[in-house]
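Input.
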Amino acid sequence: MSFQQGLSGLNTAAKQLDTIGNNVSNASTVGYKESQAQFADLYAASLSGGGGVQTGTGVKLVAVAQQFTQGNITNTSNAMDTAINGPGFFQVTNQNGAILYTRNGQFQVDKNGGIVTNQGHKVMGYLAKAGVLGAAQGALTVSTVDLSPRATASVSATANLDSREVVPINALFNPTDANSYNKSTSLAVYDSLGVSHMASLYFQRQPITTLTPGSIPAASNTMTVANTAGLAIGNTVTLGGVTYTITAVVNGTTLTVTPASGPAAAGAVTTNAGAAVWKTYLTMDGSLVPLVAAPLATLTFNTSGALLTAVPTAPATAGPGGTVNSDPTYTPLNAAPQSINFDFNKMSQYGSNFGVSSLAQDGYTSGRLNGFSAGSDGTIQGRYSNGQTQTLGRLLLANFVNPQGLQPMGSNEWVETVASGGPLVGAPGSGNLGVVQSSAVEESNVDLTAELVNMITAQRVYQANAQTIKAQDSILQTITNLR
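Output.
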């Protein structure tokens, strides 16, 4: 019997050495998971369950179990490299359409723009259309088509107009006459073809005091004046010793005011000298928009420097908080007619120098793909030459109730089995799935020091089993030598 026991010990020790050797050889393999040889003892038992003390008949190898513990994350210089931090596997398909799973995130782009592994297997994920992620799953691809331009639709200006500024010498605005405006600023806007145009805004201080003959009927909110020039919503006007606030400028001679008058009044109308009015003009590539010296909007500030109203001269739409923004329309050369919403609701007029805090617009020219990377949630963002980004897709991860039940197929890939159960698929970071890290890989989880120690132990076990065979051989030799 000792021969059988020793032989089984030699076989299992050899299997253990094979397992250790495989671990050591893959100590530098990205995404590799170390294996562990697991054994069980052997007993010869009769069907009748005979009693008595039994001596074991040896040992057997019951499993070579892979250990799916986390490997170290190492940064790389390749943006395509992606590491999983936590549970989960990348899902890939081979040339035959079979689904496999891997922890090796050394990805690359093939000639067709597909994201693939080193074996050419396609990486699966959630697909995006026109930069919008959907629920559909499929092989991820990177489109190299240029990003289409976007025509500017809105401009937001945040600036301070100096309350100490005086009215310009020339009242008639002319962009080439520096004496017809106080300050100006510019920004680039884009048409439907992605062509850049220079939009310039000019600010012109208006007279702050106006005297006009006027009248208001008894118990009325309507005031008639000779001329509403220089008057704006929020201004206060005085007539007959009563102060009214302008709530609307109806036309060139009519105002709506509050409160309603008591007795009818007539005489000289005096505006509030503390309120300030500025007219804003627009040029595109040096040409007025509209093509007359009409202001883009009239801005009125109160005595605290806050914006009271921004009344557009051009067509307008409602802006944030019910405010009204100016929407001039112009037609760039060879491009579609364009309407841009100008938002002046963050303007101020304090006693400090003119300054522009922000001048933002939402258009851009066409762009060429410069690179891409994956976020921690697996979303792949493309970076374009025009400074824009667009979602190209999203990696998915799959996990299993029993990862040790997966069948290894080589090349750092596994397939599901009955023992592993079906895949639980989701986005990185969702459920019990790990997150991903771009420009990084997961190292092998092999502890080389521990494996070398295990190798010494397995060698000693092998030698000890060989000694039991040698001892049994010596005993048999003694018996055969009896005479």
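Residues 73-145+373-442 form one domain.
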